[in-house]
TrEMBL record:
Domain Radical SAM core: 165-272
Extent of Basic residues compositional bias: 106-116
One matching Pfam family: LIAS_N
Protein known as: Radical SAM core domain-containing protein
Lineage: Eukaryota, Sar, Stramenopiles, Ochrophyta, Bacillariophyta
Chain spans, region Disordered: 92-116
SUPFAM superfamilies tied to this protein: Radical SAM enzymes (SSF102114)
Length: 272
């Protein structure tokens, strides 16, 4: 559509055509120089970009309108073997991306992998039913002693107390009670800020148990007793001395002491 503009002379008789104006859109060639930002005119002349969301909306709207909304959405979501052609245009390049999707990925079959070897028989803990185990446990109960094997719930108690192949039972005696004043998260021993007082007869009980077992090597450990002024070092020393006097020096004692809060003089007290 064109519009003709007239100019009327002052005398009112002559008509002079001045200009033609067209309302139709004009096509303008735009040159884009790589590396330079586009001018405002170039930005207006660039082809419109369609986002991924707009493409999906158009595709969903083009499906059969007679189907229900849920079925249409499910059909669109499944997209069984449908090729999606998305045209991406810019001022510098134009390309087509094709995507092929399947209805559903194949499910992996559940089951044990064939390349996994079975666990060896020795890795499983044996039940504590041997005669040595029963004898050692009875002695501990009669004397009212505590062992770290039981208090810490060691899974190897059946093997150690049972004696194994050489029929020699071993146990680690835990002195100064069965309640610790510290609460380490990795330990199963009972904890309390105010544990029961120390048993003054414990050194004699430990010596009698070791003598009954006929051991020449014994391991002693203990709970932490931060409620004691000497952290329990004096009590630990009495147990060691009583063991050596009972066995007349024919015994080796391995002492696994607490940290005594870093007081080295308490370590010397146990060692002497």
């Amino acid at each position: 559509m064109h519009r003709f503009i007239k100019s009327v002379a002052r005398d009112g008789h002559s008509v002079v055509p001045i200009r033609f104006l067209s309302t139709a859109p004009q096509k303008v060639a735009v040159t884009v120089t790589p590396g330079l930002p586009p001018s405002p005119q170039q930005q207006l002349e660039q082809p419109k970009k369609f986002s991924r969301l707009e493409e999906l909306r158009k595709k969903l709207a083009s499906l059969d309108e007679e189907e229900s909304g849920v079925e249409t959405l499910q059909k669109f979501a499944m997209n069984d073997q449908v090729n999606e052609n998305i045209e991406i245009q810019s001022s510098e390049t134009s390309m087509t991306v094709t995507k092929t999707s399947s209805a559903a990925p194949a499910k992996k079959k559940k089951g044990r992998r064939k390349n996994i070897l079975p666990k060896p028989s020795w890795i499983r803990a044996q039940p504590a039913t041997s005669d040595n185990y029963k004898k050692l446990r009875a002695t501990v109960r009669d004397l009212g002693l505590a062992t770290v094997c039981e208090e810490a719930k060691c899974p190897n108690i059946g093997e150690c107390w049972g004696g194994g192949e050489d029929n020699t039972a071993t146990a680690t005696i835990m002195i100064m009670g069965d309640t610790c004043t510290r609460g380490c998260s990795f330990c199963a021993v009972k904890t309390s800020r105010a544990p029961p007082p120390l048993d003054p007869n414990e050194p004699e009980k430990v010596a009698s148990a070791v003598e009954a077992w006929g051991l020449d090597y014994v391991v002693l450990t203990s709970v932490d007793r931060d409620d004691q002024d000497d952290q329990g070092a004096g009590h630990f020393r009495e147990v060691v001395q009583r063991l050596k006097s009972k066995k007349q020096g024919e015994i080796l004692v391995e002492a696994l002491t607490p940290d005594f809060r870093g007081e080295l003089d308490l370590v010397d007290l146990v060692a002497t």
